[in-house]
Amino acid sequence: MSTDDMDSEMSKSFTAACLDQTRYHDISLTFHVMRLATLWRTRLDRVLRPNGLTLATMRPMAYLMISKTPLTQSDLAALIGVDRSALVRLLDVLEGEGLVVRQTDTQDRRLKMVLLTAEGKKQCKLFHQLAAELEAELTSGLALSQKLTLTQDLDMMEALLSIDHGLSA
């Protein structure tokens, strides 16, 4: 059996169907969320890559895109759940590509505000389009009322987790 055949066999055998979710029924939601997050991110990254984008670089930019107010580096790190030093390295790359700029806060010179450039906004627009198309595809089996309920339930859970860990919602 060739390596490709073995990879194909392994891919086939490790699907959700091989999991016995009745064994740990009290944490079935945990397993669903972990698996869904992995699958969704993988699909999104596959959609982004042919367009010259990656989820790793688009993730902080997407948060900047939807933020109601400008974010500091620390705020952005907390929102996306990475340590500040990892974010600084990523922002160095994004700044080098002309997608973001860091500006000193006018009220507190110790703080660096992270802002999208015109090119960064252009990439965010493409990200929005691609992510919206994928979301529509992945939720096509749900009625509008189900999508709204799901979104509200996820919002509530996210708010509870954010409060629990001192994160911004």
TrEMBL record:
Domain HTH marR-type per the UniProt entry, residue ranges: 26-159
SMART domains xrefs: HTH_MARR
Keyword vocabulary terms for this entry: DNA-binding, Transcription, Transcription regulation
PANTHER family referenced in this protein's UniProt entry, alphabetically: TRANSCRIPTIONAL REGULATOR SLYA, TRANSCRIPTIONAL REGULATOR, MARR FAMILY
UniProt-recorded name of the protein: MarR family transcriptional regulator
Source species taxonomy: Bacteria, Pseudomonadati, Pseudomonadota, Alphaproteobacteria, Acetobacterales
